[in-house]
Design a protein that fits this description.
The protein has 375 residues and is an alpha/beta fold. Helices cover 30% and strands 23% of the residues. The structure holds pyridoxal-5'-phosphate. Pyridoxal-5'-phosphate binds next to strand 9.
């Protein structure tokens, strides 16, 4: 195979156990949106369920339907939809929907009425992220309206929730203020006579470093896949997480070129002396960021190299000097790092981004191979 992303489902299982331990008495929601952060949504969901996650979470209704289509009937939440989306199938399939405004409440109510079923919802408050969620001044009226619908049997308020802005910066005061805001929002909920079963706020970073953000449930994404939410939180190893993805390729061609030879588009790399170039058949269409041109690390036969010159759509080139590398040899692009190969964290640094983007933006052209699990 030209190149592939190998997904270690046993690592996902191990990470879920680690996060359940960190969550203590709180339930765990494993986030499998965006194709399981690039790891394959359905196999990741199965591995997470097998390891005991109580909930699964996705962004979009169509992601939730795909989880249901795979045979999963357990607790499942979706939080992002457009005003024109028909949510009837979600309600019918017991997908729990986020509601952050009166308009969204109306949209979910319409779906519930259409299918003649009560819609399970999680009311969302903006405690300071400045993204989705009702602002505190709109919150009491949203809670009131939802309670009215609940009294009439149209919706069931399962949860109240919010999302953290800076949990990956343990020293920032933002998380503390958001926790306070969340408590205030919960007080308003109690005053309205609503008793949701699940209050939830924390993402991976919140789960790992802010015990008082855990409430009744935590929502973990990146850590499920074995990656740290940020350098200030720790490394995969220090957090007890195992990166689940390993991306490999085969050297497509090795050739000798003279000194002074320009390499790849724009000749942004030029050989200093007679050397060999190895052609690796992956490029930005496969998710190797072009912004990492000249910097992305990889290893061949245990030796580290950096990409030489510009990352092209389908291929990269590496100056391997006089190494005895042949076409067909294995290239380690990134992985857990346990055998000296680069990590997604190192790729993120080389590309000026975060590990989330490295794994999530792997292209659909790169085959995913799932190992070590029931899936
Ligand atoms: C993606 C997402 C998460 C998971 O965040 P991580 O940092 O990957 O743990 C949790 N909650 C919401 C609302 C999200 O969109």
């Amino acid at each position: 195979m030209r190149a592939a992303a190998e997904i270690n489902l046993a690592a996902i299982g191990s990470n879920v156990l680690r996060l359940k331990a960190a969550a203590g008495d709180s339930e765990l929601l494993a986030v499998v949106k965006a194709d399981g952060y690039g790891h394959g949504m359905v196999p990741s969901a199965r591995a997470a369920r097998a390891a005991g996650t109580q909930y699964l979470g996705v962004a979009l209704p169509e992601e939730a339907i795909a989880v249901r289509e795979s045979g999963d009937g357990g607790p499942l939440m979706a939080w992002l939809y457009a005003p024109e989306d028909d949510l009837a199938e979600c309600v019918e399939r017991r997908v729990e929907l986020s509601v952050a405004s009166l308009d969204q409440l109306q949209q979910v109510v319409a779906a519930a009425v259409k299918v003649g079923q009560r819609a399970p919802i999680h009311l969302k408050v903006d405690t300071g992220l400045g993204r989705s969620g009702a602002m505190p001044d709109q919150w009491p009226s949203l809670v009131d309206a939802a309670r009215g619908r609940q009294d009439r049997g149209v919706v069931e308020i399962v949860g109240v929730w919010s999302h953290l802005a800076s949990a990956d910066e343990p020293e920032s005061g933002t998380t503390r203020r958001q926790i306070e805001q969340f408590h205030a929002a919960l007080d308003a909920v109690a005053e309205a006579g609503v008793e949701p079963r699940l209050r939830h706020l924390a993402n991976s970073a919140g789960t790992l470093v802010h015990p008082d953000a855990r409430f009744d449930m935590v929502r973990c994404g990146i850590a499920v896949y074995g990656l740290s939410p940020g350098p200030a939180v720790g490394t995969s190893a220090s957090l007890g997480l195992i990166p689940a993805m390993r991306v490999t390729a085969k050297v497509a061609l090795v050739k000798r070129v003279p000194g002074g030879h320009g390499v790849s588009y724009g000749h942004r790399y030029r050989t200093r002396r007679s050397t060999q170039l190895a052609l690796i058949p992956v490029g930005y269409a496969d998710g190797v960021p072009r912004s990492g041109s000249g910097r992305i690390p990889l290893s061949i036969q245990g030796v580290r190299y950096s990409v030489s010159g510009t990352v092209a759509m389908d291929q990269i080139v590496v100056d391997i000097g006089d190494a005895k590398v042949r076409a067909g040899d294995d290239v380690q692009l990134f992985g857990a790092g346990s055998h000296g190969e680069p990590t997604a964290d190192e790729w993120a640094t080389a590309c000026g981004t975060i590990n989330y983007e490295i794994v999530t933006r792997l292209g659909p052209r790169l085959p995913r191979r799932h190992l070590g699990g029931a899936a």
